């Protein structure tokens, strides 16, 4: 029987742009009926108009680096691949901005910017060799150690082009750093996990690559000791670009401070930093655990947030949970911003993993933050709410209902079943 | 909206807020007829002065029940008419909610009520060695709630970012009258970034009742220089060279000859005599970094033709350098009876070309334009001078002012960098954004405010009809009411 939907998709954007889905296209175990890869915002629009007319459930994917994050889609008809939406549209080096298509790999973008002495200051953790895309980083609001100095996607994204679920193209923001005309839709789409529409282009503010950098690393005895050192660094005039902590399951804890700046400035600050930390190793390269998640594919991956002063307490709570439940629970992250990541091995009994999530979620809540389960095996997912308590959920549902009234985009993947 | 309806609503508000917190006397109402953009004036039907978040929510609920629009106002210093009252609506003034609830240096946060004055946050944090980074020129009088609504900037946002980068949590009254928390003291709250969407929404998504701000460690070293140049081209080239060298100054500000003349006349700031343009460059951070880069900045200024370079030796000298810049808007009153403060943005590299175009238009139309701007991020504040007593001059000034915005748009810039769209630039929005863009932004509006009661007529030239409205009784449709009967 001829497939009318596939024919429509092909007619909309060209024969080679759409194909039937296969087992290899599955997202969190859900296989799409169709896969399409538009080559431009216009082609994406045409495809999404067909999807709207046919009431297709759509999931957007880039490199798929973080497709195991968030919930599995409740329905999936069309997997929309951004692999052809690539390349830099404009790099105005003198204005320190770049406009880039959403399917562009982060590493490719940085390689384009580096010769001009510039960077997009997003050092989101990447598995080795991963081609994580701009769109994926924006959709998952992924951040890395240097968020302490440069902020996250929301602080660097100055303009966005999206295709709405009904196939209408819209832009917000622009390509100037300072701009308060109209609503900041870029922030709305950041971290929305593809539930509001397709991001096709992003404009970012850039930063100069620092002339010099140094990593100061020091071992600490326990969470309290880590907390004291972190507080000392925060109160100092070191102005670190990152302040990270790593607590391995075997009990060893390390704190690392990244200093960036001029050669002379970094040299002098490093000397001051070594003194402040009571002895530290200074190196040009980061410690091996830097900017990586403490879990492997298939493990349970947690994101824990807290007010800054709650970091030691949360670290201690993780350590205690690990000892009490005898699990190799690793934790690392930004002691300078209050964002930690925890990892539990895939082999952990699902009931136990769920229990630990519940306990640590309460601890994070006490510390003014949240615990979100970024990724977990299906048996763990069944037993827990990935997101935990969400303030403003009613307004979020109303936003979703306005943008995607049929709930076709990434249905069920986001908070509150959005 | 009849007089009876208003008096019924007034009685309902008095029952909730108390007599002293509701103003209905015509003469008293007149005090609130405009914000910082005084050419638009509308007398509100009522003014409400809630003292708590609960009172603020009750005020909004009363408005919703009556189907009456409401407009939030902080200190009323906005320059785009964002807090311009609605003739048949309630002006909700947050200036009595001005407690600093907590200063938490160990969390790098402060929790404040919306009526708190911007500068007072920094003062409260100063003993701990912290400050609140966004510093609009009006920081001695403007309120944090207003800053949130406008996403206010300031001279130092080149390095530190805008209000949106320094607010981590809000409590807001939604246009349904519900109190909702968005974000918090910890980063990355799960769900949509409604906090990010709310900041800068100009009072169209609700009213802020509590703000959690980020406190920034105050820098070890601050160094400031003032450099005189033959003209804006040279000063612009120096700016570009500084940025190209990889320096991220705390601020780079430029003033042209006319602006310098005005500042000199008003505050005797001692800027270099006869300079065609002056540049203020400020670096801050660890002393070792600042010292290294300050030498580069001085050299780059000289290489690009700086004549006199004055380096502030202490805080008093730095204050004097800034005094000229920060008083520039008001100072223009010394050389012109009336003036329009424009606020446009261009990519910084387009600066020489855009300034030439502005000079051409100024010469053609015989309207004087003084230029003051945040040169580091391309945010222009042309001051268009006129004399309202001379027939036709105001209209001509308006035309020139509008033409400058068109130039900004043509160069891929923005119609506002920090003052907001408000009432003033509603007409320019369709030149910057397509109908679909504006329609999409208003999907967010419909999610928050399906009845269109929160600050109607601002930001968007054409309201979007939101379809089915959940909840409360629907009164007179406010969207059909321009509410500008008394504009003059």
From TrEMBL, chain A:
Residues covered by the FAD-binding PCMH-type domain: 27-209
Q: Does the keyword Protein transport apply?
A: no
Pfam families listed in its UniProt record: FAD_binding_4
Q: Name one GO molecular function term.
A: FAD binding
Keywords of the record, alphabetical order, are: FAD, Flavoprotein
Whether Magnesium counts among this entry's keywords is no
What is this protein's name? Glycolate oxidase FAD binding subunit
Q: Which organism is it from?
A: Micromonospora avicenniae
From TrEMBL, chain B:
State the UniProt keywords alphabetically.
Answer: FAD, Flavoprotein, Oxidoreductase
Q: Which protein, by its recorded name, is this?
A: Glycolate oxidase
Q: Which domain of life is it from?
A: Bacteria
Instruction: Give the SUPFAM superfamilies listed for this entry.
Output: FAD-binding/transporter-associated domain-like (SSF56176), FAD-linked oxidases, C-terminal domain (SSF55103)
The cofactors it requires, by name, are:
FAD
Alphabetized GO MF terms: FAD binding; oxidoreductase activity
Q: What residues does the FAD-binding PCMH-type domain cover?
A: 40-218
Pfam families tied to this protein = FAD-oxidase_C, FAD_binding_4
InterPro entries, sorted: FAD-bd_oxidored_4_C, FAD-bd_PCMH, FAD-bd_PCMH-like_sf, FAD-bd_PCMH_sub2, FAD-linked_Oxase-like_C, FAD-linked_OxidoTrans_Type4, Oxid_FAD_bind_N, Vanillyl_alc_oxidase_C-sub2
């Amino acid at each position: 029987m001829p497939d009318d939907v596939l024919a429509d998709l092909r007619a909309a954007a060209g024969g080679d742009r759409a194909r039937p889905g296969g087992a290899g296209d599955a997202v969190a175990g859900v296989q799409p009926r169709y896969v399409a890869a538009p080559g431009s915002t216009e082609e994406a629009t045409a495809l999404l108009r067909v999807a709207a007319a046919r009431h297709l459930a759509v999931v957007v994917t880039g490199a798929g680096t973080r497709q195991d994050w968030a919930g599995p889609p409740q329905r999936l008809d069309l997997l929309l691949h951004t692999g052809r939406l690539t390349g830099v549209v404009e790099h105005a080096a003198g204005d320190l901005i770049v406009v880039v298509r959403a399917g562009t790999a982060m590493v490719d973008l940085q390689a384009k910017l580096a010769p001009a002495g510039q960077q997009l200051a997003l050092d989101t953790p990447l598995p080795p060799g991963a081609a994580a895309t701009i769109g994926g980083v924006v959709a998952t609001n992924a951040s890395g150690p240097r968020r302490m100095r440069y902020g996250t996607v929301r602080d660097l994204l100055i303009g966005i082009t999206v295709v709405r679920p009904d196939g209408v193209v819209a832009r917000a923001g622009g390509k100037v750093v300072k701009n308060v005309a109209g609503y900041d839709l870029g922030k709305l789409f950041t971290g929305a996990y593809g539930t509001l529409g397709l991001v096709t282009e992003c404009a970012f503010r850039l930063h100069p690559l620092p002339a010099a950098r140094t990593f100061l690393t020091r071992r600490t005895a326990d969470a309290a000791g880590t907390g004291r050192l972190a507080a000392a660094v925060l109160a100092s005039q070191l102005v670190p670009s990152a302040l990270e902590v790593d607590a391995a399951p075997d009990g060893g804890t390390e704190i690392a401070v990244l200093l960036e700046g001029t050669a002379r400035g970094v040299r002098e600050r490093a000397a001051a930093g070594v003194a402040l930390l009571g002895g530290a190793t200074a190196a040009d390269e980061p410690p091996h655990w830097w900017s990586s998640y403490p879990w492997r594919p298939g493990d349970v991956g947690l994101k824990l947030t807290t007010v800054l002063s709650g970091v030691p307490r949360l670290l201690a709570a993780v350590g205690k949970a690990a000892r009490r439940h005898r699990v190799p629970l690793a934790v690392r992250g930004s002691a300078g911003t209050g964002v930690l990541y925890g990892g539990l091995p895939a082999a952990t009994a699902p009931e136990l993993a769920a229990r630990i999530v519940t306990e640590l979620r309460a601890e994070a809540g006490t510390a003014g933050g949240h615990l979100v389960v970024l990724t977990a095996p299906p048996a763990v997912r069944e037993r827990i709410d990935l997101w935990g308590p969400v303030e403003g959920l009613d307004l979020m549902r109303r936003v979703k209902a306005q943008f995607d009234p049929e709930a076709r985009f990434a249905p069920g993947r986001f908070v509150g079943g959005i | 909206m009849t007089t009876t309806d208003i008096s019924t609503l007034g009685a309902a508000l008095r029952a909730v807020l108390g007599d002293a917190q509701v103003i209905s006397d015509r003469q008293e109402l007149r005090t609130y007829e405009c914000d910082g953009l005084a050419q638009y004036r509308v007398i509100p039907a009522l003014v409400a002065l809630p003292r708590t978040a609960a009172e603020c929510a009750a005020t909004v609920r009363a408005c919703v029940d009556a189907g009456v629009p409401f407009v939030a106002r902080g200190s009323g210093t906005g320059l785009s008419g964002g807090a311009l009252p609605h003739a048949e609506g309630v002006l909700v003034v947050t200036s009595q909610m001005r407690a600093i609830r907590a200063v938490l240096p160990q969390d790098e946060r402060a929790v404040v009520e919306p009526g708190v004055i911007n500068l007072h946050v920094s003062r409260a944090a100063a003993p701990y060695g912290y400050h609140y980074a966004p510093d609009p020129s009006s920081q001695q009088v403007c309120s944090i709630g207003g800053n949130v609504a406008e996403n206010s900037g300031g001279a130092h946002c080149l390095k530190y970012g805008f209000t949106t980068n320094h607010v981590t949590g809000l409590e807001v009254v939604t246009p349904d009258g519900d109190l909702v928390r968005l974000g918090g003291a910890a980063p990355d709250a799960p769900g949509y970034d409604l906090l990010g969407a709310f900041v800068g929404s100009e009072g169209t998504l609700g009213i802020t009742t509590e703000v959690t701000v980020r406190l920034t460690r105050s820098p070890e070293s601050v160094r400031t220089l003032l450099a005189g140049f033959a003209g804006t081209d040279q000063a612009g080239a120096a700016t570009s060279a500084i940025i190209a060298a990889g320096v991220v100054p705390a601020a780079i500000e430029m003033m042209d000859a006319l602006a310098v003349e005005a500042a000199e006349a008003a505050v005797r700031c001692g800027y270099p005599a006869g300079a065609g343009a002056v540049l203020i460059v400020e670096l801050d951070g660890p002393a070792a970094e600042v010292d290294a880069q300050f030498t580069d900045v001085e050299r780059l200024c000289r290489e690009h033709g700086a004549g006199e370079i004055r380096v502030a030796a202490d805080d008093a000298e730095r204050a004097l350098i800034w005094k000229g810049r920060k008083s520039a808007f008001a100072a223009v009153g010394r050389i012109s009876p009336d003036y329009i403060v424009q606020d446009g943005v261009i990519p910084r590299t387009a600066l020489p070309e855009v300034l030439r175009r502005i000079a051409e238009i100024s010469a053609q139309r015989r309207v004087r334009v003084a230029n003051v701007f945040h040169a580091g991020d391309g945010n222009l504040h042309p001051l268009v001078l006129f004399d309202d007593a001379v027939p036709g001059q105001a209209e001509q000034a308006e035309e020139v002012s509008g033409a400058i915005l068109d130039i900004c748009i043509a160069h891929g810039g923005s119609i506002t960098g920090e003052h907001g769209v408000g009432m003033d630039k509603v007409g320019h929005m369709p030149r910057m954004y397509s109908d679909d863009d504006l329609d999409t932004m208003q999907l967010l509006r419909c999610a928050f405010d399906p009845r269109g009661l929160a600050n109607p007529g601002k930001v968007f030239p054409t309201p979007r009809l939101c379809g089915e409205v959940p909840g409360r009784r629907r009164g007179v449709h406010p969207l059909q009411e321009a509410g500008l009967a008394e504009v003059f």
